[in-house]
């Protein structure tokens, strides 16, 4: 029972610190988490734009458009939070231009492809887009 007053005092101090309007600055781990999340969301946006540029399926396009709206909302919210906290924003990837997925003919052979990873080059001779 002798710890009860210190427990109550600690609880009151925590509640006051949350409601007194004084904000403590973010520590390096929180800033890193913000940067990491923003980079993640920006990459999601790029992949969703690529998906929109390469699919003609109505259901998939609707899903990608909805996902893109959510990701853009998250990007806007975390970017504003970071600006408000004085955290500089990282460089952002450029938005993908809109293309017509029907512009690439079905069964179009794309030629050879070289996969590069950590200094290794893996040739993939020929691949094609199948219907």
Helix tally equals 3
Radius of gyration: 24 Å
CATH topology descriptor of the domain at 26-96: Ferritin
- Major sheet: 2 strands, antiparallel
Give me the count of strands.
2
Q: How are the secondary structure elements laid out?
A:
Blueprint: H1 4-19, H2 28-54, H3 58-84, E1 109-117, E2 120-128
Antiparallel strand pairs: 1-2
Helix pairs in contact: 2-3
Keywords for this structure?
Ferritin, 14% strand, 3 helices, two-stranded antiparallel sheet, single chain, 131 residues, alpha+beta
In short:
By secondary structure, the protein is α+β, with helices and mostly antiparallel strands.
Tell me about this structure.
By secondary structure, this protein is α+β, with helices and mostly antiparallel strands. Strands 1-2 form a two-stranded antiparallel sheet. The model has no long low-confidence stretch (mean pLDDT 78). It has a domain of 71 residues: Ferritin, core subunit, four-helix bundle (Ferritin), CATH 1.20.1260. The N and C termini lie far apart (74 Å). Helix 2 packs antiparallel against helix 3.
């Amino acid at each position: 029972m002798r710890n009860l007053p210190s427990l109550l005092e600690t609880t009151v101090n925590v509640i006051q610190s949350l409601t007194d309007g004084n904000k403590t600055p973010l520590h390096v781990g929180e800033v890193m988490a913000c940067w990491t999340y923003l980079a993640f969301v920006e990459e999601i946006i790029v992949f969703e734009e690529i998906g929109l540029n390469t699919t003609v399926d109505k259901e998939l396009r609707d899903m990608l458009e909805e996902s893109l709206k959510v990701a853009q909302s998250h990007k806007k919210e975390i970017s504003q939070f970071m600006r408000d906290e004085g955290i500089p924003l990282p460089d952002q990837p450029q938005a993908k231009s809109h293309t017509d997925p029907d512009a690439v003919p079905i069964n179009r052979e794309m030629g050879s492809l070289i996969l590069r990873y950590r200094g290794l080059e893996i040739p993939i001779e020929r691949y094609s887009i199948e219907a």
